[in-house]
């Protein structure tokens, strides 16, 4: 039996995969260790969404390959040759190949390279897991997506949409709550199209999970705007439950409809604006998170200005800003690229803009008092979330999983600062 070190990068689905890989490792009789210096074998669950991320993955692969190594997650599926360029001996495990985890581990420990990149029929719902955070249950509701975005490797990594059965997901959530989780993350490659392949949808799932009687909160993960028209009214209604954080992550990517067309996003800027408007009309202090890519190959200065205007108009609370980077195997990687200095200039302008918007949005919370669920340890201390999923720090000592009444006294661009109100 081996001592195994597991680490993960990327989205919440990637971290969920690492939890399940760790659970399978323990079930297989092996031991998990906290540091690669103590391990007999290393497992790195990778992400490949951006150049910078892929470069970080390569750095970690190089530093971990002195011992038997399994490279798991999106990078080996999307860029097998890149991984093998830096480590010929490492075994490879795809994001939808978790059913072969123990088989790959046994072979790798014996010095035999195994490549398990084909999808298995194993559902990720109901697998054993070792939680990264005892207060948070990450539940994958589907794998893959329906989109064909010209800039994204996700389709190459995770393939077409495979939604998990609603009843199975509800039972998994019940297990998470029974094990002490106070916060449930419903996550996938794209929550917006959940259920389209099995005759259900995301609002139906949220309603079913909300009906579980115990006290807990639900964070609904990322959903692309192109599927909003099919579910928007029922989706907003499903957020009426007090158990659902008033938070949506809707990546618009650009304010230019021409760029969105070139990206093959399948939505317009108006689609995004409508769901933002509906959410904020129905609920006070609804948190909107979005993603923006600057410097896409076909983005003109006029297109860029439309993104600036869209952000000014919708004032999202969180913007995940990325400079476009050409990812191998994607359509847009073959196009003529914009000069990097121009991309940096546009990125700096948007960065300054979103910092001002975020600070202004956060200042509206000063004086607010209400319940906060403390759900994460960070370098700054214990972080909590209120009903709108706003990140909140307090100077007092609080345990993870505790709910406390907090009064907001100050803010930064990225968080609220408060004190325990009693």
Task: Give your account of this protein's structure.
The chain has 422 residues and is of the alpha/beta class. Among the domains are: 3-116, Rossmann fold (3-Layer(aba) Sandwich), CATH 3.40.50; 369-420, Beta Barrel (OB fold (Dihydrolipoamide Acetyltransferase, E2P)), CATH 2.40.50. 35% of the residues lie in helices and 22% in strands. It has helices spanning 12-27, 51-64, 74-78, 80-86, 101-109, 154-158, 166-178, 202-210, 228-238, 257-262, 269-282, 301-314, 340-363, and strands at residues 3-8, 31-33, 41-46, 69-73, 91-93, 115-116, 136-140, 142-143, 162-163, 183-187, 217-220, 247-249, 287-294, 318-323, 369-378, 381-385, 391-393, 403-411, 416-420. The strands form 5 sheets. Strands 2-1-3-4-5-6 form a 6-stranded parallel beta sheet, with helices on both faces. The chain has a 5-stranded mixed barrel with strand order 15-16-17-19-18. A 3-stranded parallel beta sheet has the order 7-10-11, with helices on both faces. Helix 12 packs parallel to helix 13. The longest helix has 24 residues, at 340-363. It is globular. The termini are far apart.
Quick gist of this model?
The chain is α/β, with parallel strands linked by helices and 422 residues long. It contains 13 helices and 19 strands.
Indicate the radius of gyration in whole angstroms.
Answer: 21 Å
CATH superfamily of the domain at 3-116: Methylthiotransferase, N-terminal domain
The total of beta strands comes to: 19
The top-level CATH class of the domain at 3-116 is Alpha Beta
Structural category: alpha/beta
Ends apart, CA distance between termini: 50 Å
Helicity level, as a percent range? 25-40%
Could you name the ranges where pLDDT drops below 50 across 5 or more consecutive residues?
Answer: none
Shape field: globular
């Amino acid at each position: 039996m081996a001592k195994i070190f597991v680490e993960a990068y990327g989205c919440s689905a990637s971290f969920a995969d690492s939890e399940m890989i760790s659970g399978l490792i323990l079930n297989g009789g092996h031991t998990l260790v906290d540091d690669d210096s103590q391990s007999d074998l290393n497992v790195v669950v990778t992400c490949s969404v951006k150049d910078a991320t892929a470069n970080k993955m390569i750095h970690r692969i190089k530093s971990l390959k002195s011992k038997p190594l399994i490279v798991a997650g999106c990078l080996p599926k999307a860029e097998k040759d890149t991984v093998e360029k830096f480590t010929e001996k490492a075994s490879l495990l795809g994001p939808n190949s978790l059913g072969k985890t123990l088989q790959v581990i046994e072979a790798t420990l014996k010095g035999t390279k195994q490549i398990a990149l084909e999808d298995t029929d194993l559902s990720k719902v109901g697998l054993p897991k070792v939680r990264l955070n005892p207060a948070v249950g990450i539940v994958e509701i589907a794998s893959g997506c329906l989109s064909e975005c010209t800039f994204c490797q996700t389709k190459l990594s995770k393939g077409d949409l495979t939604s998990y059965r609603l009843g199975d997901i509800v039972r998994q959530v019940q297990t998470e709550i029974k094990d002490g989780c106070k916060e449930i993350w419903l996550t996938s490659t794209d929550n917006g199209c959940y259920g389209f392949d099995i005759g259900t949808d995301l609002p139906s799932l949220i309603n079913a999970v909300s009906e579980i009687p115990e006290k807990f909160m639900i964070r609904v993960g990322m959903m692309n705007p192109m599927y909003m028209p099919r579910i928007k009214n029922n989706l907003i209604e499903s957020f009426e439950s007090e158990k659902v954080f008033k938070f949506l992550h809707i990546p618009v990517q650009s304010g230019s409809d021409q760029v969105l067309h070139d990206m093959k996003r399948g939505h317009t800027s108006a689609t995004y604006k409508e769901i933002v408007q509906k959410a904020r009309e129905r609920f006070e202090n609804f948190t909107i998170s979005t993603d923006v890519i600057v410097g896409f190959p076909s983005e003109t200065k006029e297109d860029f200005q439309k993104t600036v205007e869209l952000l000014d108009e919708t004032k999202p609370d969180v913007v995940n800003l990325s400079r476009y980077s050409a990812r191998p195997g994607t359509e847009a990687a073959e196009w003529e690229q914009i000069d990097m200095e121009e991309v940096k200039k546009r990125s700096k302008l948007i960065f300054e803009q979103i910092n001002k918007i975020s600070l202004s949005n956060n200042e509206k919370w000063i004086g607010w008092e209400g319940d906060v669920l403390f759900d994460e340890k960070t370098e700054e201390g214990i972080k909590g979330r209120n009903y709108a999923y706003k990140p909140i720090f307090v100077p007092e000592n609080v345990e993870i999983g505790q709910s406390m009444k907090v009064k907001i006294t100050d803010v930064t661009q990225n968080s609220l600062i408060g004190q325990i109100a009693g």
